[in-house]
Each structure stands twice: as C-alpha cells, then as structure tokens.
Amino acid sequence: MSKLTRRDFLRIIASSGVIFGTGQVFAHTTYDTESALPSQIPIPPSLMLHSRHRWILPPILDYLLDNGYTGIHYADFENALLGLSALPDKPILISIDDITAVKGQNPTIIEYFGAMKDALVERGIKGTFAHITRPDLEQDDALWDELRAWTAQGIAFETHTAYHSVLGRRAMTWADYETEIITSATFITEKIGMPVRALVTPYGSGYDMATNTITPQVIQACEQAGLRFIVGIVNGRAPIRVPIQHNEVLYVGRVGPGVNNDVYGAQLEIEFWRTHYR
Ligand SMILES: [Zn+2]
Q1: Most buried residue among 114, 130, 209, 226 by CB atoms closer than 10 A?
Q2: pLDDT tens column, 181-229
C-alpha cells in the first residue's frame, strides 16, 4: 500500500463507517522516513489458553507451523521494541495461564501443563506460562526445578499475580499491589532464573473498559517491578510506537480460541489479529 496522508486516512474513516477508538492506529506499518527504521511495530497475535485447552493445543500448533508462524516470548517482543533484535516474519505469543508450584499440585501440573509444554517443545514453538505464586502456601521445590528446566526448552514464565485477585478493586491497598505484582514477579524471577517481563492480569482485570484506562497502581507496581508489559485481554492490539522509553510499561491484550474454544476459533482469531491490527 502506498503511503497515505493524514487527509486520505481521515477520508477513509469518514467513508468506511469504521469507528476508531483512542489509541487505534490505521492498518499498516509506518516508517520513519529519516532513519528508515519502523516507527511502530504491530503487536503479534497473542493467544490465551488454559489447561482445559490441552486437547486443542497440538492441532493449533500444527496449524501455526504449517502457516509459517514462529513462537516468541514477551522478552523477544520487548527486544524488538527496544531495537535490539528483529521479530520473525509471523510472530505469535502463546500464553497458558494458572500454572503454580505449590505443594500437592505436582501430578496435575505435570500431567496437564506438562503435556502442553511438550506439545510446544516437540514443535520447536516458544511458549509462556502465566504463574500464580501463592506465597501463603508451601512451595514444591522439586516442581520449581522441573519448571526451571523447561526454560532450556523454549518456555518462559510471567507473573499471573500472587493470589489471582481481581486487580483494581477499591478495597485493594498498595501493599496488596506490591504482593500481587512486585513480590510475585521477583519470586518467579528468582526461582526460574530468567527475568519476568510481564504481568498477566487475572480475568484481564485492572483495565477499565469504560474509559480505556489501566488502574494506576497496576502501572506503578509494574514500573517498580521493572516489568515491561501488562497483559490483559481487551484492546491492546494497536501497533506500538517506537522507540519506547527505557522504563515504559506497555499494555497489550490477548485473545482466546474463539467463542467455541476450538481449533478453528483459534485460527480465526489469530488470523484476524495478524491482518487487522497492523
Ligand atoms: Zn488466570
């Protein structure tokens, strides 16, 4: 597509009937004409899964391989935004929620999440697990050892908070945000040996859909934890303007495998995201 002027763009919007919300960007990658570097980078399609999706993960992954996708971590996306590395042609972020390493959970964790990890590793697709730390419960160190070993196989871990709380509730104190976000991220980083880069918010909470704003304490806690991304669900699809600031916290969304929670739904959502939010 040839470069559009702002006037062309406004004319298209006016005639298309499409309503663009704040922060939405028109669908093509733009380039800084002076440096020839990209001035914005699309957010890769980001698929949100849970252990109940373990049966549909292998065919989803086969589809991605057949269609030229490359799995990446949030750290890879961050490096691209920082200009430190380039993204593959068709990057995809796959995150699987609600893993934990508290005592007494091991057989289930290994059976369910382990099967999903194997499906990723067997295909050479990088994936991410969103971890709930539960500092009130005894941790299973053998399970932590197992999870740490997954990182050598292309698996990353991000924080999914300490208690899987709905963030942004009025009753939450700053100490709660510290526990849910900062302490959990630090703990996972220590246990796994790789820096946590993202807060994956429980239920996509901490984001006010009415005003398109993120709970200030969530942003503040992520800043203090040195996290780059707040990973919610709604919105967070428009390309990100680069270069980003050194300690900028970015909100990005995710999508589930369609309304029917099936392979076809996942394919549709991924393709829509990749082609629409550029
Ligand atoms: Zn969850």
Answers
A1: 130
A2: 999 999 999 999 999 999 999 999 999 999 999 999 999 999 999 999 9
In a domain, 29, yes or no: no
> From ligand 1's centre to the CA of 160, what distance in Å?
7
pTM for this model (two decimals):
0.87
Residue 217 lies in a domain: yes
Taking every pair of Cα atoms in the chain, the longest distance, rounded to a whole number of angstroms, is: 61
CA 255 to centroid of ligand 1, rounded, Å: 13
d(CA 125, CA 160): 21
Cα(224) to centroid of ligand 1, in Å?
22
For 7-35, the pLDDT digits (tens) are: 443 343 333 333 333 333 333 455 555 55
From residue 259, alpha-carbon distances to 116, 141, 184 in Å are: 21, 37, 31
Residue 239 lies in a domain: yes
